[in-house]
Each structure stands twice: as structure tokens, then as C-alpha cells.
Design brief:
There is one protein chain. The protein starts with 24 loop residues before the first strand and ends in a 7-residue tail after the last strand. It contains 2 helices and 3 strands. Helix content is 21%, strand content 21%. A 3-stranded parallel β-sheet has the order 2-1-3, sandwiched between helices. The model has no long low-confidence stretch (mean pLDDT 75).
């Protein structure tokens, strides 16, 4: 978490148990300008499902999670949360 400790709520947000079937992963696709911002809420999605969530940052190359995300989306095995204008597509 990049929030100041006084504003961090991570300790009050325990991970959720598991994803609803048939989902196996959740991909959070965020704009590269959101990285390291204190107001970035994408981290909450990652913290909710620590073993199933993957972060993909738009505009960065060579991300194995992006290839994994696109394959999982095509197979109907995942959902992607689009954060603040990041775009999933060709």
C-alpha cells in the first residue's frame, strides 16, 4: 500500500476466501500513470484475492501477467477490472 500509515486500511480488509466459480483469476488492468499514487484503489482488488489477483499495467511491455490475462479472458476463465481509463484491447 502506498498510503500514509495514518490513512491505510489494509489491516481492516482481510482477503476474501475464494473467487466465485468459474473464475480462477482476477486481473486488475491499470493505467501506468496510476502506479505509486496514494489514491490508487487497484491495490484493494489485489489485496482481496492475494492468490488469484494479478496486476497488469497499461503501457508497460514484457508483462507475463498481460499475456496470461488475455488468454484467460479469451477462455472465459477471468475477469478484468479496468481502473481509471486503462483499456483492455488490441
Amino acid at each position: 500500500c502506498w498510503l500514509q500509515r495514518a490513512h491505510c486500511v489494509c489491516d481492516a480488509c482481510p482477503p476474501l476466501e475464494e473467487l466465485p466459480a468459474p473464475l480462477r483469476h482476477v486481473y486488475v488492468f491499470m493505467h501506468h500513470k496510476e502506479v505509486l499514487l496514494a489514491v490508487d484503489t487497484a491495490k484493494m482488488g489485489l489485496a482481496a484475492y492475494p492468490s488469484a489477483a494479478r496486476l497488469v499495467v497499461a503501457g508497460l511491455g514484457n508483462q507475463p501477467a498481460e499475456d496470461e490475462m488475455r488468454a484467460a479472458l479469451a477462455a472465459g476463465e477471468a475477469v478484468a477490472g479496468v481502473v481509471r481509463g486503462a483499456r483492455v484491447g488490441p
